[in-house]
Amino acid sequence: MLKPICAVLGMLLATVAVPAIAHDASTAVASPRATYNLNPGWRSTTGEQAGAEQPGFDDRQWHDVTLPNAFNEKEAFARDIKELSTGIIWYRKRIVLPAQGPGGRAFLEFEGVRQAAEVWVNGQSVALSENGSMAFGADITAALRPGENLIAVRVDNDWKYKERATGSGFQWNNNNFDVNYGGITKNVRLHLTGPVYQTLPLFSGLGTIGQYVWADAFDVKARTATIHAQTQIRNAGATSRKIGYRAEIRDRDGRVVRRLDGGDATLAPGETRLLTAAGTAENLHFWSWGYGYLYIVTTILTENGKAIDSVDIRTGFRQTKFADGMVSLNGRVIQMHGYAQRTSNEWPAVGVSIPPWLSDFSNGLMVESGGNLVRWMHIAPSKQDVESADRVGLIQAMPAGDAESDVTGRRWDQRRK
Questions:
Q1: Crossing angle of helices 383-392/356-368, nearest 10°?
Q2: What angle do CA 209, 212, 213 make, to 5 degrees?
Q3: What's the pTM?
Q4: CA atoms of 164 and 166, how far apart (whole Å)
Q5: Which of 17, 42, 64, 272 could be cross-linked to 234 through a Cys-Cys bond (beta carbons 3.0 to 4.6 Å apart)?
Q6: pLDDT in tens, 171-216
Q7: Is the separation of the CB atoms in 68 and 186 below 8 Å?
Q8: SS3 call for 300
Q9: In the 3-class helix/strand/coil scheme, how is 274-313 assigned residue by residue?
């Protein structure tokens, strides 16, 4: 349920861009990189299934499901969250890679699994995620083989789940506020890249930070700002490569409003490096409350003048400032008021596995009712809700994984990360 609040942010707001977290293969600049939606075509069942991670396991009696999916999602709002069903949930999917792929790396991206998930590809364990809220990734290149490949996922949504390595629980796996819809509750993607590629912003699992776009040096009256585009790149090949870097900024209509040149860099085999480009953009539409104006920033790697990797980031630009006890947005003081929404943001009968349009409807209601802030409660929001709030023009305040009390030891380490 939405809870009205009136808030003055108790944190220092710097001059920043709206968060940018999209990182799929570009639709604006062609390159060998490809992104595939893996949501359709899974089979699922509940309960322990010995050998279900192996390709030869017989899953013909399992249920056909499309992700996102939780085995207990129909219980949403029909039961108190403390009474939601728990258990072991298995998912399996077969994929065949394209014959003419980019010939580099293959990554699985899970936007969210509750509570813990172990992932296998062709019977080989490739990932273990236990925190129940954070997106994570897996490099599955070494586990793949020609022809058909089997992805298997075992999910455990026990309220008292313990971290395997330490025996510690998680502060936010709490039946007072964090609803427990067990399964692969968010989108899954497959990313195929060449040997030299821009990393994904999936620190959990991959340890990489991807792309970051931000703005500074604002002149709101003149509608100008300096745009910075940063990307982390990696050379997974066996030879050194001289790589060029540039970024292109497109408006809502797809017109290029600025090109940023980041120069060249030579990467040794196995090297990972940050590349940056910056420049002043003019006639900008600044993102604001109720005006979610977003640009597409495409970060591009080139070799001998040809694009070898390109990624789209959808983001807006705004000037924010906290000083003298006041928050200002694009040069004007704004009184922060809005809602404290449970981060799960679930709906009856479907739980948290909702389409983006429903996130826009929900978050848009906050804007239409006069709210300019959503303070997500207890844990960070989903990628889908962050992107939705950007689209509808809703400012977000992020929590840090709590249960309305501080902790020490391993649980504090989990919260910090």
A1: 50
A2: 175
A3: 0.92
A4: 6
A5: 272
A6: 888 888 889 999 999 999 999 999 999 999 999 999 999 999 999 9
A7: yes
A8: strand
A9: EEEEEEEECCCCCCECCECCCEEEEEEEEECCEEEEEEEE
